[in-house]
Amino acid sequence: MEGYQAVSSELKALYPDAIIKTIDKVTEDQACPALIDFEALAEQGKPVSGAITTGTCDHAALYDANKFQQLVNDPTIDVIVRGVRGYPNVASYPQMFGWIDAENGLIRTI
Hints:
Shape: globular
Order of helices and strands: HHHHEE
Radius of gyration: 17 Å
Structural class: mainly alpha
Helix content: 25-40%
Largest sheet: 2 strands, antiparallel
Distance between the termini: 29 Å
Number of domains: 2
Number of strands: 2
């Protein structure tokens, strides 16, 4: 991607401990770059010791920070998935979105 080296250099200047991993292809979904992130951390000898959050770069999330922390601290919870109901662009471009099949807070498929 043109210009990525300048962006990478600026990020490293602002955040000297940042680990920046470039890849040579477009990934399929959010899970693929998350796995690449874990691999990059392992390559640098920096194991993950706490909660990890991941998401897209083109949106923001409003949430109850206390409720989120309760979920993070609950040892019976393995994964927290955030989704949106009723987003208007889904009807026009359903193939551009991931889908969550859940019932009563339990996820069946994503």
